[in-house]
């Protein structure tokens, strides 16, 4: 599992290659002299997980293979960034995994999303990068299409479950630990409403895709589903004042099993489209769907020319 990862993983800060000491569970950036831990079955390539080499001897030992890398304390981090995104899904892995497979909860919606993803992705081969993979539920669909999925997520708790389904790495969508021009397909499901800086994430996705590569985003429809939409008893939707603005909605302001715990970003459709277009993408297809009569899901397919 580690081999497929190390071929495309880089330091999220300078996007350079890493040296790997799989025996000790460490990755090392000799340029910045930073080490990243490999714990619980996956590497943690996030700035808040980094720690500096202890001394020149350790640096040279890892760089030239003249000696073992000192173990250090994996709980200590020396590069904590106060502006780094919060992993809001910590502590909810089993809960999330259960409700997204339960048809009496969010299972039907999730299955519709994965079917939309499959129809837009089509059959293929090679690496498919699942950005914001959560517990890895979409991996089965990517594999059925012929791809080798790799997951990236900010939550170690979610990745603990996801690692049983696909190779994963802890990382931030706004600072992906993935080499430039290295993947042909990237996708996200129910994730962009969690990204604090969608513009930056869009630019990062564009960077990691090779020429002709595709990005598919499947999520709740901002026009019919979310903090400013209310389902009416007769089957319609009431759109409340506030749709045109962009804001993070706190958990206590939202209904629903997941969002009432982690909150969500609301962005109007025009803003979502424009941020990806400004990153350099070309929009090639839009699909709507979902289990309800009105579309609860929106799928966007972009290409990097």
UniProtKB/TrEMBL annotation:
Residues annotated as domain Methyltransferase type: 129-216
GO biological process, one term: methylation
Pfam families xref list: Methyltransf_11
Ranges of Basic and acidic residues composition bias in the record: 73-82
Highest taxon of source: Bacteria
InterPro entries the record matches: Methyltransf_11 (IPR013216), SAM-dependent_MTases_sf (IPR029063)
GO MF, one annotated term: S-adenosylmethionine-dependent methyltransferase activity
Transmembrane regions: none
Keyword terms, alphabetized: Methyltransferase, Transferase
Location of the region described as Disordered in the Swiss-Prot/TrEMBL record: 63-82
Protein name as it appears in the record: Methyltransferase type 11
Organism, scientific name: Leptospira wolffii
């Amino acid at each position: 599992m580690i081999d497929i990862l190390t071929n495309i993983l880089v330091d999220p800060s300078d996007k350079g290659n890493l040296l790997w000491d799989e025996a000790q569970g460490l990755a090392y950036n000799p340029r910045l002299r930073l080490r990243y831990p490999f714990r619980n079955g996956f590497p943690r390539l996030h700035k808040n997980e980094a720690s500096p080499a202890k001394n020149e001897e350790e640096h040279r030992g890892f760089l030239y293979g003249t000696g073992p890398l000192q173990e250090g304390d994996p709980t200590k981090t020396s590069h904590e960034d106060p502006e780094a995104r919060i992993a809001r899904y910590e502590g909810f892995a089993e809960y999330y995994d259960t409700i997204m497979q339960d048809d009496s909860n969010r299972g039907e919606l999730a299955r519709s999303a994965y079917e939309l993803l499959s129809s837009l992705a089509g059959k293929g081969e090679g690496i498919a990068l699942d950005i914001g993979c959560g517990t890895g539920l979409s991996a089965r669909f990517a594999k059925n299409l012929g791809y080798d999925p790799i997951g990236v997520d900010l939550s170690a708790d979610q990745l603990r479950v996801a690692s049983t389904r696909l190779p994963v790495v802890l990382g931030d969508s706004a600072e992906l630990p993935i080499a430039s021009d290295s993947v042909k397909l990237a996708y996200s499901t129910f994730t962009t409403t969690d990204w604090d800086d969608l513009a930056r994430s869009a630019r990062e996705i564009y960077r990691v895709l090779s020429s002709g590569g595709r990005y598919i985003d499947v999520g709740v429809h901002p026009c019919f589903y979310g903090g400013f939409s209310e389902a009416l008893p007769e089957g319609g939707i009431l759109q409340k004042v506030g749709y045109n603005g962009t804001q993070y909605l706190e958990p206590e302001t939202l209904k629903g099993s997941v969002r009432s715990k982690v909150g969500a970003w609301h962005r109007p459709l025009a803003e979502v489209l424009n941020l990806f277009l400004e990153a350099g993408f070309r929009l090639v297809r839009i699909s709507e769907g979902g289990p309800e009569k009105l579309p609860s899901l929106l799928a966007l397919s972009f290409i990097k020319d």
